[in-house]
């Protein structure tokens, strides 16, 4: 777990580590990913240090999706993924909320961009899904 002092993204926000800055607002910074999985792979981060999306105060979220949209539009990619991971089991490597814009060329197949499977939980019945729905709804 990264502490605030050792967080690579916080160091980028503070200017201690250089980045290829694309966009900056009062609360958000967007820059090129230095370990891209596609041409044009970019990161959008809140300047506020929070490990997971659920840790990020709502007042720090207002610029995130508009920045993602601007960056995605600037890539001119017809196809792209907007990815945000939370926790090691979900493939989060840097313990600071961040969003990936990953262009996916139509002809790339598994050679460029995000490659995923979609393991549909076919053994969940409608009744089980309905029960989960009711539990989630009660927590909102």
TrEMBL record:
A motif (Histidine triad motif) lies at residues 96-100. Transmembrane segments: none annotated. The active site is at 98 (tele-amp-histidine intermediate). Keywords: Hydrolase. InterPro entries: HINT, Histidine_triad_CS, Histidine_triad_HIT, HIT-like, HIT-like_sf. It comes from the Eukaryota. It holds the Pfam family HIT. GO terms for molecular function: hydrolase activity. Residues 8-113 form the HIT domain. GO terms for biological process: nucleotide metabolic process. Gene3D superfamilies: HIT-like (3.30.428.10). PANTHER family: ADENOSINE 5'-MONOPHOSPHORAMIDASE HNT1 (PTHR46648:SF1), HIT FAMILY PROTEIN 1 (PTHR46648). This is Putative hydrolase.
């Amino acid at each position: 777990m990264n502490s605030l002092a050792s967080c690579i993204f916080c160091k980028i926000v503070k200017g201690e580590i250089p980045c290829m800055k694309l966009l900056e607002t009062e609360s958000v910074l967007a820059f090129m990913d230095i370990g891209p999985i596609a041409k044009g792979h970019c990161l959008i981060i809140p300047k506020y240090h929070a490990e997971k999306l659920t840790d990020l105060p709502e007042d720090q979220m207002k610029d995130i999706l508009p920045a993602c949209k601007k960056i995605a539009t600037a890539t001119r990619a017809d196809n792209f993924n907007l990815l945000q991971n939370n926790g090691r089991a979900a493939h989060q490597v840097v313990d600071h909320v961040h969003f990936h814009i990953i262009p996916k060329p139509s002809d790339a197949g598994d050679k460029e961009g995000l490659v995923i499977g979609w393991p549909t939980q076919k053994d969940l019945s409608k009744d089980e899904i309905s029960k989960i729905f009711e539990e989630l709804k009660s927590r909102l």
